[in-house]
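Figure S7 source data.
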Amino acid sequence: MRLRKVHGAKDLIAKHREYIIDNLDNEFIDLKSLFKNDNPIQLEIGMGKGQFIYTLAENNKDINYIGVERFDSVIVRALEKVIDNPLPNLMLIRTDATDLSVIFDHHLIDRIYLNFSDPWPKDRHAKRRLTNKRFLSMYEKLLIKGKELHFKTDNKPLFDYSVDEVLNYPMDMKYVNYDLHNSDYEGNIMTEFEERFSKLGNKINKLTATFKEDNNG
Ligand code: SAH
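Tokens for the predicted S-adenosyl-L-homocysteine complex:
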């Protein structure tokens, strides 16, 4: 089943509540009953068309995955993949990330992935960057203590900003790589943007960090 016209996105989303939650009213979502098991739950925020999280879910059946994306027109592409080939350990949520700490109970998420997040290059928009301290504080609430935030981007100014935000938060930086594809890092899963931008010769940066245990969020 293929839906080419994006104007059908809302209808398709409405028809497939078993795979996607359209969280128009910022309603509470009970993570504990979302999947019918107690496996760890990992989150990608701003998943776009979903290639990364879909691949992870295919490869790791004993981990549950949630892909969060705010635009119908984009998340519908991920939904199409799921309709074609459903995975019991993958759920999609159409919502703005800003309110995730209201939508979910705290300290239940095993890992958060951010991939090729919007750079918001203007200083006055820095607060909108998904690695701004406002968002880090939300991730701290969502994550189980000691669990990791993973971030990849080809955008060097955004990456440098993110490294600073992480170090100032305070968090512990576990891993930093300024050229992931030319390194010994194993098991990288490519996102759509990563394929596109690495083909242009852009270097891919990656960091992994945890929140300091004594900083109660
Ligand atoms: N992760 C994908 C897409 C990157 S583009 C990839 O690497 O290929 C960034 C995506 O994040 C866009 O689809 C955008 O709509 C989404 N996004 C940005 N801010 C968001 C927010 N606050 N909440 C939810 N999604 C967001």
